[in-house]
Here is the input.
Amino acid sequence: MTAERQEAEALDAADGLASFRDEFAIDDDGRIYLDGNSLGRLPYATLGRVERVVANEWGRTLIGSWENWIDLPTRVGDLLGTELLGARPGEVVVGDSTTVNIYKLASAALDTVGASNAGLERRVVVTDTANFPTDRYVLEGLCAQRGLELRLFESDPVAGPDGDSLGQALRPGDVALVCLSHVAFKSGAMADMSVLTWLAHEAGALILWDLSHAVGSVPVALTDTGADLAVGCTYKYVNAGPGAPAFSYVRAELQPTLRQPIWGWFGQREQFEMGPRYDPAPGMVQHVVGSPNVLGLVAVEEGARILARAGMGPLREKAIALTEFAIRLHDEWLAPHGFDLATPRDPARRGSHVSLRHPDARTICDLLIQEAGVVPDFRTPDVIRIGLAPLYTRFVDVFDGLSRLRALIT
Here is the structure.
């Protein structure tokens, strides 16, 4: 047994979060799952909860269960907001997809700051070229519809957006909205939310944060950083399952003036009066739009409960230790064979996944999955992402996974 394998076993033995692994459905088939940053594992609590909702609430109580279901979007939103996002009660709601929520919040923000087809000064939306594609596509569509400019700035492909690069894009003073990711989907770089939010506000713009690769993996402080708006998915580190509903955050001070553009009956004041005209409900309820996805919402609730029990502080400490271990093995084993680290080395500037760059990354990733029993993922053109979800990823998983990768290339 190598010294590194012994070290990994010792780290697992001392891991205060080790028992959480037993709360997830994990087959003992020899596969090493390193893709929790794309799709989290299934918690047993979720399996039991969904079965109860289907068999007892839907199967027996039928429509009478809406008494328990109708406030799920705001109830689960408060759980996410207060336990995982650093938000206040009443600022987060769960429903729709991340893409739809970006559209709703970005559109509402542009209306709030007065960016329309009329000749107004703030006619620019800013994001970086490395932001997740759906963010860029939604913003591109909104700008096309409204006759606005989408200004893309180049951010460092490893370090992500910083104050200098964003500052250059904001300098003309014509920006209505900034949209950035807290943790970059490709490199895992973590942006300084406080600094970049301050810069946007100094320029007179609102800022919308995508937290999809942050929620459940790194501490988020929406209130303390002054963030205006945020969205994020729940099927990664929150472990809510494929296609699970996403969340929306609107700072309480903005809620009275921010009206989202999809006027649905679940967002209507006095919903069951079935009135002739739309009158938005106060607060985050207006963001619900249509009938909630009950099965998806209870899955989000159970996933968030597990994270809340573990605590974001211990989860962050373990994520740093896991990524540090992975980076060290990369430097010793993989760098001599043509790999480059595509993730920040500073633990304060990275999330919970490590990206490795190689000219043959696609082929290597395929071989890892098909022949070596290791499941990471590939991102074009040359990146293999190693997702290290601290609730259930062990240090021996990191060692064994990268050991198998080394065996493939040597």
